[in-house]
Design brief:
The chain is α/β, with parallel strands linked by helices. Helices cover 34% and strands 20% of the residues. The protein has one domain (16-211): Ribonuclease Z/Hydroxyacylglutathione hydrolase-like (Metallo-beta-lactamase, Chain A, 4-Layer Sandwich).
Length: 274
C-alpha cells in the first residue's frame, strides 16, 4: 500500500523481466493504494521457480503467471509471501491448491500446505531456499506490517511493501510499527551497502537501481515527517488535525494511509517522550 509522497520513476510500469532469474507479472488491481498493481515475482532458474506474492483472486492473473512460468520452462515449487496484506496474499491458497505446492509466510495464518493437514513452518530470518541452484534468503523487515519480510536473490532484494517503486509506504498501525520500520530501513540500507545489492524489486511500481540511495531517501523522508508531526502534536493537535496540516498534499484517495501512518508516528512519539 502506497503513500505516494517521494518522487520516483515516472514511466508507466508494466512488469517484465528484471533479471534472468526474476520476472514480474503485474496483477490487474491498479489503485491509488497499489500503484499500477501488485507485482507478482517469479524467481528461479534451471527449471524450477517460486511465486512471490500471487496477489488478488483473479483467474486472468493466474493464467498470466502460469503462462510466464511455462514460457520460462520453470515449474513452481513454492509460494512465498512478503506479508499477508490482501493485495499480496488473497490468491495464495487457491494457487497453492491448484499447483499442489506450499505457501510460506512469516505469519502462520497465511502459511498453507495442501499436501498436509498441518501448516508448514513459518519463514525465519536468514532462512535460505535453494531454487534450481539459486539461493533465495529471508530478511525480516517488520514495520509496514508486523509480518513483512524482504527476499534476497542474486544482486536484488524483493522488498514487498517495505520499499515501493514509487512514493512511500504506509505504516499500517496498529499492526505496523514505526520504530520497527525505522530499524528495518536501517537494516536494509546496511545490507544493501555491505552486499553490493544492485536493484530493489518492489511489491508495487518499477524496479529501483540505487538501493542505498533509495533507502536513505526513505529514512530522510521519515525523519522529516516525524519532526513535522512532533511539532504539531506537541501543540495539542489530534490525529485528524495533524493529517490536515502535515499531509495536506496527500490526495483524498490515500488519506486513510496518512491517518494510519500518523497514528503510528504519534504512538512512536508517545513511547519516546521523557
Amino acid at each position: 500500500m502506497s503513500g505516494r509522497v517521494l518522487p520516483g520513476p515516472d514511466a508507466q510500469w508494466t512488469g517484465g523481466s528484471a533479471r534472468a532469474y526474476a520476472h514480474c507479472v503485474l496483477a490487474p488491481n491498479p489503485s491509488p493504494w497499489t500503484l499500477e498493481g501488485t507485482n507478482t515475482w517469479i524467481v528461479g532458474e534451471a527449471g524450477v521457480c517460486v511465486v512471490v506474492d500471487p496477489g488478488p483472486e483473479n483467474s486472468d492473473h493466474h493464467a498470466s503467471m502460469l503462462a510466464a512460468c511455462e514460457q520460462r520452462a520453470e515449474t513452481p515449487r513454492m509460494i512465498l509471501l512478503t506479508h499477508g496484506h490482501i493485495d499480496h496474499s488473497e490468491s495464495a491458497r487457491t494457487l497453492a491448491e491448484r499447483l499442489g505446492v506450499p505457501v510460506r509466510a512469516w505469519d502462520p495464518r497465511f502459511s498453507f500446505d495442501p499436501a498436509h493437514a498441518r501448516n508448514p513452518e513459518v519463514l525465519s530470518h536468514g532462512e535460505v531456499f535453494d531454487i534450481g541452484g539459486r539461493g533465495v534468503s529471508v530478511l525480516a523487515t517488520p514495520g509496514h506490517s508486523s509480518d513483512s519480510v524482504c527476499l534476497v536473490v542474486g544482486d536484488c532484494v524483493l522488498t514487498g511493501d517495505t520499499v515501493l517503486g514509487r512514493g512511500t509506504t504506509v505504516v499500517a498501525y496498529p499492526d505496523g510499527d514505526l520504530g520497527a520500520y525505522l530499524a528495518s530501513l536501517e537494516a536494509l540500507r546496511t545490507f544493501c551497502a555491505d552486499n553490493g545489492v544492485a536493484s530493489l524489486l518492489p511489491g508495487h511500481g518499477p524496479v529501483l537501481d540505487d538501493p542505498v540511495g533509495v533507502v536513505t531517501a526513505y529514512q530522510d523522508h521519515r525523519a522529516m515527517r516525524l519532526a513535522q508531526v512532533h511539532a504539531v502534536w506537541s501543540d495539542g493537535a489530534d490525529v485528524e488535525e495533524i493529517v490536515d496540516i502535515v499531509y495536506a498534499d496527500v490526495p483524498d484517495a490515500v488519506r486513510a494511509a496518512a491517518v494510519l501512518t500518523v497514528r503510528a508516528q504519534v504512538a512512536y512519539l508517545a513511547r519516546s517522550a521523557p
